[in-house]
């Protein structure tokens, strides 16, 4: 009888493990992109690489910046299992001062449907020339 109960419990655990690992699963290469110190008007673009570690296509359904100065763009094609996609973020470097913004990546991932990545750094103004 104990063997039957143990086999049943092991079967339940295996089913749960399979259920948890099925579907699309998202992984991001980094959670923060640090621009460091950049000049006003510099290229404010960076890229986050998204990997599908699941067994079904990963679909990035929405990418949203925390303000209008942070504009993300998600790949629109489904990412095959084991495949990679990108989220490109463009920050408006005309704004002088610290950068501390976030981007929410929404997908059909079973492990984490909403992933938040951040960008940080400081934009410094162009040096003024003395008269």
Number of helices: 1
The first-level CATH class is given as: Mainly Beta
- Cα-based radius of gyration, to the nearest Å: 21 Å
Tell me the CATH topology.
Immunoglobulin-like
Poorly predicted ranges (pLDDT <50, ≥5 residues)?
A: 12-19
Strand order of the largest sheet: 1-3-6-5
Rounded to the nearest angstrom, the distance between the terminal CA atoms is 94 Å
The CATH homologous superfamily is named: Immunoglobulins
The assigned structural class equals mainly beta
Average pLDDT taken over every residue: 88
Shape: elongated
What is the H/E order? Answer: HEEEEEEEE
Descriptive notes:
- This protein is mainly beta.
- It has a single domain, classed as Immunoglobulins (Immunoglobulin-like).
- 15% of the residues lie in helices and 46% in strands.
- It contains one helix and eight strands, in the order H-E-E-E-E-E-E-E-E.
- It has a four-stranded antiparallel beta sheet, with no helix packed on it. Strands 2-8-7-4 form a four-stranded mixed beta sheet, with no helix packed on it.
- The chain starts with a helix and ends in a 7-residue tail after the last strand.
- Residues 12-19 have low confidence and may be disordered.
Question: How would you summarize this macromolecular structure in one to three sentences?
Answer:
The chain has 131 residues and is mostly beta strands. Helix content is 15%, strand content 46%. It has one helix spanning 2-20; strands at residues 26-28, 32-39, 45-52, 60-65, 70-74, 84-91, 97-107, 114-124.
């Amino acid at each position: 009888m104990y063997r039957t109960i143990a086999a049943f419990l092991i079967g339940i655990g295996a089913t749960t493990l399979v259920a948890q690992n099925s579907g699309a699963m998202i992984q991001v290469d980094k959670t923060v992109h640090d621009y460091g110190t950049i000049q006003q008007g510099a290229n404010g673009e960076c890229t986050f690489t998204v990997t599908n570690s699941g067994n079904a296509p990963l679909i990035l359904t929405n990418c949203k910046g925390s303000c209008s100065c942070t504009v993300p763009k998600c790949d629109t094609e489904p990412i095959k299992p084991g495949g990679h996609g990108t989220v490109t973020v463009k920050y408006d470097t005309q704004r002088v001062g610290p950068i501390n913004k976030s981007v929410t990546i929404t997908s059909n991932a079973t492990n984490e449907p909403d992933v938040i990545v951040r960008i940080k750094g400081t934009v410094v103004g162009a040096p003024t020339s003395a008269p």
